[in-house]
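Take just one protein record:
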Amino acid sequence: LMQMDTSGMMMMIAPMVKSLVGDIDAVAQTAQFNPTSDLTMEVTYGIQMNDDRSGLLGLLNDSIDNTEIPSFVGPNTLTYYQISFDFAKLPELFTTIVSENPILSMQLGEQTPQIASSIALYAETLGDDFIYASSGALPVDDNGMTSLIAIECINEQQLNNLLVMMLPSLGAEPADFLGYQTYTLDMGGDMNMMMPMPVDLSSTIATAGGYLFIGSTSDVHQALRTIANPKDGFEDHATNVGLDYISRTDVAGWGYGDMAKSLAIQNKLNAKMSESMFADMELFDPEMAAEFRKEYEDEQAYVKTVQKAFDQFMSKMAFDYTVDDTGFVSTAVLVK
């Protein structure tokens, strides 16, 4: 790629990519089909880093302290994973990325230490546990497909003080929800001015119960309800049999999901948003709206074929991964 790039841009950004991802020496993959009566496939991925793990991969801790699924993760979960991440090393990584990229070094210059110090103020309030969950249901509702990030918070007071100073200046709307301070950003504000969106695109940030929550407003509110009243928590987390074939202990991360259902919901959302767009378009140019609608309908045969393939071969999955000084190994299973 560098040889084909006559502009020299790849040569400029290559050091930044290397410092961001890490110095990877080799990548390997193996696959086994129908390894058990429950599984369609078992895949193992490996990344070799001979000069020690670095970049973002270097920030992954080698074990998870808590492997329980939190009660705010509910039955409509599409994807769930948790990892252990050393946030305290983020300022050092930022400084390394800037120093190894000439463009960033010229742009930031003497500001780099100040920015790194600001990052450190936030990083020192966070623990190592990182959780991500996406949710959705059929038929698709106004929330569409939602997501939630929950990061262990070890100093809520300091983090709240930092959020109070930063978020309102970014346009976040402060509010009280069940006694917790929340900050909401309307991510679809500008889009809604041009074309009304059929789903809620707002995002909310809050701290509560030892977590920093960032995600779709509906998911953050549900997490806060669970913390305020544990009886509102969930016992059904939409897990699958793939978890029986991976490890949740002595690993650096693990997760599970339903890829076929995620794709089905995404297709329904696309259809819903496309129909909304066509309806608005018909008000000022019916002929153009008809052309766009015809193109969209012609594409649906391919979409249905892909969905059928996912339903049959790539529906539910689970994975785990381990790390050491020389790299990263992950095992993923696809459930029949």
